[in-house]
Amino acid sequence: MARQSARKVAQAKTTTIEPKTRIEKAAGASGASVTTKSTKVTIVTETKVEVTETRAPKRKTTPTEPEFDGEDLENASPVEDKKPAPKKRKTTKKDAENTMALAARTAVTSLKRAMYIGAHVSAAGGVQNSIQNATHIGANAFALFLKSQRKWVSPPLADEAKTQFHDLLKQHSYDAGKHIVPHGSYLVNLAQADKTKATQAYDGFLDDLQRCEALGITLYNFHPGSTGGAAMSEACARIAGQLNRAHKATKTVVTLLENMCGSGNVVGSRFEELRDIIALVDDKARVGVCIDTCHAFAAGYDLRTPAAFDKTMAEFDAVVGLKYLRALHINDSKAPFGSHRDLHANIGTGCLGLRAFHNVMNHEKLQGLPMVLETPIDEKGPDGKTVENKQIWADEIKLLESLIGMDVDSAEFKEKEKELNAQGASERQKIQEQVDKKAGKGAKQGTKGKARGKKTKKEEESCDSCGESD
Hints:
Elements: H1 2-10, E1 13-17, E2 20-28, E3 38-46, E4 49-53, E5 116-120, H2 129-136, E6 141-143, H3 159-172, H4 195-215, E7 219-222, H5 232-249, E8 254-258, H6 271-279, E9 287-292, H7 293-299, H8 306-319, E10 325-330, E11 332-333, E12 344-345, H9 353-361, E13 370-373, E14 378-380, E15 386-388, H10 391-403, H11 411-423, H12 425-451
Parallel strand pairs: 5-6, 5-13, 7-8, 8-9, 9-10, 10-13
Antiparallel strand pairs: 1-4, 2-3, 11-12, 14-15
Cofactor: Zn(2+)
GO molecular function, one term: double-stranded DNA 3'-5' DNA exonuclease activity
Family: Belongs to the AP endonuclease 2 family.
């Protein structure tokens, strides 16, 4: 009896499920106006899915990812010498191709300014799926990960995926040279001083650039890296050196340095640091900058009023040069100005507010650049589990498009501004209290340190979301 039970446990079980599902979905209007109408569409699908279950012996696992206290991972410092996080359950089919679009793409020529807006979409199942996912939300630009951003080694780019990617580009009329901006791995730190780790970082970086060229993609965005406690000037020089190597090993990709939130060890929170890296890059045509609005705000660059926005843009032009600005990440901020915390908020609900994005969308010199949303889309479903609501991105794309040429004194703008501001009020208050509490603790520690004649920690010591500490 025991032998028979053991055999049953070892064998795979195959069951056949024949579900019939009826899905009712409201299709959002595709116009550039904030107010949308919807029509009710009923889609009936019948599928037959064969599911194979296998049982494997349980293994003890240990956590491999650092905790970020609710912070976005966008500004996280590289996590090195750790195993990647456990893989999520993979789906056997992409639903993007069989799902009605949440919003139609707006013809950019119909807008008063040529603004190409989209989001960082999933490429699960193959890079070609990113195109379907972008069209699904009505995006005219998009970002993606070319491979797992949490693993050092990934399978090579499949020929079939590459072929499908090129075919879908033509089918949906995306310009891979201008409006697709892959995001680099969070693991890569081009400022790494350790020789072995620096080689590992460079190899991972170069692999991404080679994937870009195989796909015909020109722009590639990455986080500059962390000093690891060394001098900032030395870190900037190491980053530039690695870029020079990578540029010589490739032909066309333009590497974009992303500005960061303001941590002491993370490179790129000040425009001067970006300038210093670019100054040491041999081929200036192969380097540029991607500005993240949340990171800039958290680092102390104001964008909220027309005057503040113009001042920040003028400073960027004077320090770095607008000719190097090649892309933007469009995110509001849950955290207050100059807080050095990287907490992305939905457009208009954060501390930047809707007016800041009106400034962005109506700035003539930003025309033609890819603008990528990285705003939160996770929501709790009826069963209490977290699910992604991509309608949020579809709606935010239309919202941003509607701001082009909109009168900020109009009732339409004021009502939308008030509505979004109210939506994010409780979250802003919660984060403000956290920031104030941390500042209070820092002040007390500083007073104690001075009283004892000890040195206090640097103000810039860490950015919560970067996971940095002395």
